[in-house]
Amino acid sequence: MSPAQTPVDLRPLTALRFMAALWVVLYTFWPNLDVSFLPNLAAKGYLGVELFFVLSGFILSHVYLHAFAEKRFSYRGFLWARIARVYPLHVFTLLGVMALGLAAVAVGMNIDASVLSWKSLPAHLLMLHAWGFASEAGWNHPSWSISAEWFAYLAFPLFALAAWPLRKRPWVATAGAAVFLMGLYAAFERLAGFPLTEATFRWGALRIVPCFAYGCALYLVYRRAPLPRAGLLALSAAIVMVASASVLAWDAITVLAAGLLILALASIPDGRAGWLGSRPAVYLGEISYSVYMVCAPWQILAVNLAARATGVEDKRLHVLVWLGIILGLIVAAAATYHLIERPARQALRAMADRRRPPVDHTAKQSETVLQPSDTIV
């Protein structure tokens, strides 16, 4: 299929977002499970964020790159759409953690002082807390990746300027992005003493750069021509990704395989995506941002209540209680999606629509259709 014939709504990628979020959830909640072992795959769950970052570069290129090249790209409109997508839920979950922290203090419970980090609050509100402007980790910790995404959004024209000239040599662009990713990972770990994939508040803005660039380059391959035998390639890439994480291989290998999985899933012809294109899978993908953002406050609330109810002082819960909490997280995420995330996004985008002249209906419809899957967390 040519790029003009490819489906606008890449449903398998929407479903993939939920898998990435669930991987992060597994990583976050595993310490609360009463077992004596930690599977390597769970230990590598932080790489679910890398999967989100690569996916973000791919999808935003899918939506905006051609418009950028034809000078139809509105930077202000793009940033407003991104704010509408991520900011309302970011503020809501921050306030949720604030309420939980203040309630804990009021009843005399001991909490980590960094949770209510008042001096880092301005950086969180401005989404600058993964740029090195937050003095300590606090509030809703997973939101550091939203700050990193905001950095990539602001820099999107630079990514587009680098990608577009290589549109006729997409595999060259992809190879270059892969080499850049591996080189940066190796150099950062040697200089900093820890992997870039484990950076959050201090180096989160840098962490997204190689992944986002890799996603943009992979989109050029898809734009030139979707891959043949995409289902088989997707399965192969998924096996490599899971296997590399399970044997604790270098994180770069897992991230590169994740990117190929994204490319392969995007290349699956419309109507042949199977369960990845089903309504339940796509719905779970649509609420994945809420799953990710509600994860930390839900852990604070649900784990503490469950531990108190079951008399477990170390907060290591029976597997059935633990599974109930995970299912409860998905229910809570669905609630915040319908009550906070989606209505706020629609209201902010409607506000922008009222302030600008009429636009081409087809172009606007394309962007709206893609909206559920066009960012991370």
From TrEMBL:
The chain crosses the membrane at residues 12-30, 45-65, 86-111, 144-164, 171-188, 200-222, 234-267, 287-307, 319-340. GO terms for biological process: polysaccharide biosynthetic process. Keywords: Membrane, Transmembrane, Transmembrane helix. Pfam families: Acyl_transf_3. Residues 354-377 are annotated as: Disordered. GO terms for cellular component: membrane. This is Peptidoglycan/LPS O-acetylase OafA/YrhL. It comes from Brevundimonas bullata. The lineage of its organism: Bacteria, Pseudomonadati, Pseudomonadota, Alphaproteobacteria, Caulobacterales.
